[in-house]
Amino acid sequence: MNIPRIPGKWMAATLAVGVTFGSGWSIPVFGPIAPIASAEQAAAIANWNSAERTALIKRLAMCDKAADDFYSDPGNARYLAVKAASDKARALLLDPNTSSLKLNAAYHTLDSALGAYIEDYIRDASILERQTFQTARMLNDSIGTAPGTYPQEAADTMMAIIDEAQAAAYDPDTTVPRLREQYLKYIEGTAVLRDSMNLDRSQRLGQLNQQRQTIAEISADLPNTADYSKLLSAFHAQANGLEALLAGSSGLLPIECAALCVQNAYTALTEGLQLAGELDQASKLLDSPKGIRSGQYPSSAFGELRKAINKSASVLSKASPPEQLAASRAALAEAVLKFRSTLRP
C-alpha cells in the first residue's frame, strides 16, 4: 500500500492497547509470549496481559487520543468525565494487586464516558477527516525497524483502517452514527499501532537496572526495618514484572505501563526512606526538656508532635503511594516547626 509522502506528526497516547473493534473485526495486539526464565516471570506477564488490564489500558489510550483530537476543553463536562475516569483507571493500574472486579468497573466507567465524549464532538466528518489524514502523513516517515518506528505490516493495517474511515467521511450519504463508529475504530487502531512500535529492549533493561543499582546503593547502609522492607519488596516486584515483559514479546504499551509502575514504586521507596529518617529525627525531639522554664517546651507541644509522628509512621507502615508519603513528610515537617516554635525563650 502506498502511503502519501507528506510530513506530519503523531499524537501519542499515554497508555494504550487494543484488541477488538466493532462488527466482530479484531486485531491482535500482543504476539505469543517468548520463552521466559521462571514461573515468577510467567505470572508477571500473565498479570500485565490479562484481559482486564489490556482492556482498561486500551480504553485509556483511546481516551487520550480523543482528548488530543478534540482539543481537550477543561470547560467541557464530558471531557472532565473522561479525565476523572482516566485518572482513576491509572491509579488502579499502578497497583498490581487491583482486583479484576475493580478493573472491569473502571473499564465500564471509562467506556461510557468515552462514548458520550465522542457523541459530543463527532457531529460531522471534519474531525475524522482531519485526524486520519494527519496519521497517514505521520506513517509515511515512520516505517522501519529502528526504535521509534513502526513495522510495515502494522502501518499497512493502520492505513486500511484510515481508508475505511475516509471512505465514510467522503461519502455524501454517510450518517453521523457511521462517522462515530469509524472514529471509534480509528482510535482503537492508533492504540494497536502504538503497541507495535519498535523499541530497544536492551536499553530499557539498562535503565531498569540503573534504578535497581541506585536502590541497592541507598539500601546498603540502612536497617532492615519492616516498613522499609515493604517498600523495597514492592519496588522489586514491579521491577521484576517489567523485566519479564522486556524478556518476552509483549508490545510497547504494557511495557510503558509497567515502567510507570516501576517509577511509582521507586518514588515511593525514596520518599519512604526520607520519611523514615525524618521520623527518626522528629522522635528525638520528644526527649527535649519539658517544663515552664527558659529552654524548655510546654507539655502540650509534646502531645501534638507525638500525634503527628504516629500519623506519619502509620502512613509509612502501610507502604503507601508516593503522593501520600510526600504529603505525610510535609505534615510532619510542619509539626516539627510548630513544636520548635514553642521553645520558651
Integer tally of domains: 2
Mean pLDDT across all residues, rounded? 85
Biggest beta sheet attributes: none
* Outline type: elongated
Low-confidence residue ranges: 1-36
SS strand fraction: under 5%
Order of helices and strands: HHHHHHHHHHHH
Counting DSSP H or I runs of 4 or more residues, the number of helices is: 12
The span between the termini is 83 Å
Rg on CA atoms, Å: 25 Å
- Count of beta strands: 0
Helix- and strand-based class? mainly alpha
Question: Which range best describes the helical content: under 10%, 10-25%, 25-40%, 40-55%, 55-70% or over 70%?
Answer: 55-70%
Topology:
Layout (H helix, E strand, L loop, with lengths): L38 H10 L2 H19 L7 H17 L6 H22 L4 H15 L11 H19 L5 H20 L5 H19 L6 H22 L4 H33 L14 H19 L4 H19 L5
Helix pairs in contact: 1-9, 2-3, 2-4, 2-7, 3-4, 5-6, 6-7, 8-9, 9-10, 10-11, 10-12, 11-12
Descriptive account of the structure:
The chain has 345 residues and is an all-alpha fold. The chain has two domains: 39-195, no CATH class; 201-340. The chain has helices at residues 39-48, 51-69, 77-93, 100-121, 126-140, 152-170, 176-195, 201-219, 226-247, 252-284, 299-317, 322-340. Helix 2 packs parallel to helix 4, helix 9 (226-247) runs antiparallel to helix 10 and helix 11 packs antiparallel against helix 12. The longest helix has 33 residues, at 252-284. 37% of the residues are buried. Mean pLDDT is 85; it is low at 1-36.
In short:
The protein is 68% helix and 0% strand. The protein is mainly α and 345 residues long. Helix 3 (77-93) runs antiparallel to helix 4 (100-121) and helix 8 packs antiparallel against helix 9.
